[in-house]
Amino acid sequence: RVPLKVYNRHKILLEEGGGGDMSVHRRSLGVYEDVLNQLKAKGIRLTESRKAVIRYLMMSDQHPSADVIYYDLLPDNPGMSLATVYNNLKVLVEEGIVSEIKVNNDNTTYYDFMGHDHLNIVCEKCGHITDLDLPIPSFKEEVESQTGFRITREQMILHGICPNCQKPESK
Prior knowledge:
The chain is an alpha+beta fold. Helix content is 34%, strand content 16%.
């Protein structure tokens, strides 16, 4: 077991073999190695900054913005710039390893590691993002046959009003 790493906003635990009651995003080292191998097979450079961003997203139980990732990683990676974080996130999104989540009335983009099937649910009022583990059906074949598009990636995000925002306001 690798020790708990506490960043400014997130507690991150990297545990070999998984198991226990780890949160949705706490992944085993095997998944991390699979992601690195996937990138390596496509000829994508595995810089220390890129590996740090991948580890951070895999272990985060939040949906951080690029700024949060940057400021949390900066103490251990003083040579890293915010542009480096954005560039790494762009590559990871393009490769389908990470997804972008946009929230209504917020210009910030949030990021989510896509190492397992789950839905992202976004509250339309407060912007809170929740993960829900569900088997997600693939629409790829049906959409390709009906439209002629070659689907390269699927992402499903639900929008609604969270339980806290549904509560009547106290006077």
